[in-house]
Amino acid sequence: MGTRDTDWEGVRLHVVTGKGGTGKTTVAGALALALASGGKRVLLIEVEGRQGIAQVFDCPPLPYEERKIAVAPDSDTRPGGDVYALVADPESALLEYLQMFYNLRHAGRALTRFGVMDFATTIAPGLRDVLLTGKAAEAVRRKKAGKRVYDAVVMDAPPTGRIGRFLNVSTEVSGLARVGPIRNHADTVQRVIHSPETAVHFVTTLEEMPVQEVLDGVAELHGLDGGIQVGGIMINMVRSTELPLSQLRLVAAGSVDEHELALGLKAAGLDDTMRLAIDLTAELTEHAVTAVGQEEERRRLAEPGQPCYELPMIPDGMDLAGLYRLAAALREQGAA
Ligand SMILES: Nc1ncnc2c1ncn2[C@@H]1O[C@H](COP(=O)(O)OP(=O)(O)OP(=O)(O)O)[C@@H](O)[C@H]1O
Ligand SMILES: [Mg+2]
Questions:
Q1: Closest ligand 1 atom to Cα of 236
Q2: Residues 185, 133 contacting (CB under 8 angstroms)
């Protein structure tokens, strides 16, 4: 099986963030598919409990249990791989954790019944996060018969505004537990997250606000103690334009002459050409202004020097076929 160069060769935990609604869950799904092609096993983890992954993959709601949800397409030389998914909630993660470290599943159930979970997460919001990131770190490190169970783990993470805090939990947990298994657990999770095995990818559209969130998020991750590797910038819902940029600039600056256009339309045999020309000019100018603005956003996104990938707008709404198209686009551009 031929290996190919990708931009994130050593990365095994792919964290996907971005402004709300820009397509984080969709892109995380596409990335999982892209990483799975070539006969790989990939786990996709959702942490916000909204069943977004089930929607994207058009399958029934997912439990706290790893389930196979999709098969990556074959290529000429490589067989398709498998995508598994898991919805991680802090309560189940805590029960599992208690079971693993203390063999306390039943006690855990009782604790949950008496509301200890609420108590624990209220006094230490960081505990909630470390349980979720801990689940991802565990899946990344898990081995069976000496072999890694998953080649890669993709996490559909909280939005940019919360990502730094979400990933950098050790400082918050340290107030709660200075020593002992929780502390060790938090430290292990932090080692994985701060290692070159983890990268945080940003999803954005070509609009000012989401782009600003990317730039702020990249700066925040770089500024964290020990740093967290910034991954790629996935520019989502890109619409192609027919006109070259130089012409779009002219049009955006108001270069279209309505009278001349009206004459042209009249020569083509149309009626009521002045009104038509005015409407067309307005539409064309608006399109050009948007396209030129998007070019400016592209320029801003290039500033941090991270690889940028473009994902097309799927015109008739997302479906599974659209998801596979996005996965193919990620692979063609070397993101996976
Ligand atoms: N490339 C695309 N082409 C067309 N539609 C898309 C594309 N990417 C995402 N969408 C659509 O945009 C909407 C938002 O996508 P998604 O749910 O993945 O965003 P999100 O960032 O995870 O949102 P939230 O912040 O609510 O979790 C969905 O309806 C999805 O189908
Ligand atoms: Mg989502």
A1: 1
A2: no
- Measured CA to CA, the distance from residue 319 to residue 328 in angstroms comes to 14
How far, in Å, from the CA of 19 to the mean position of ligand 2?
10
At a CB cut-off of 8 Å and minimum separation 6, what does 172 contact? 124, 125, 126, 127, 129, 165
Q: What are the backbone angles phi and psi of residue 223, rounded to the nearest 5°?
A: -80, -15
What is the reported pTM? 0.91
pLDDT tens digits, one per residue of 260-306? 999 999 999 999 999 999 999 999 999 999 999 999 999 999 999 99
Which ligand neighbours the alpha carbon of 23 most closely? 1
User: Which residues are within 8 A (CB) of 243 and not within 5 positions of it... i.e. 6 or more apart?
Assistant: 251, 288, 291
Q: Are 313 and 237 in contact (CB under 8 A)?
A: yes
What is the sign, positive or negative, of the torsion defined by CA atoms of 91, 93, 98, 104?
positive
Of 33, 52, 51, 54, give the one whose Cα is nearest residue 43. 33
Atom of ligand 1 nearest to the CA of 27: 18
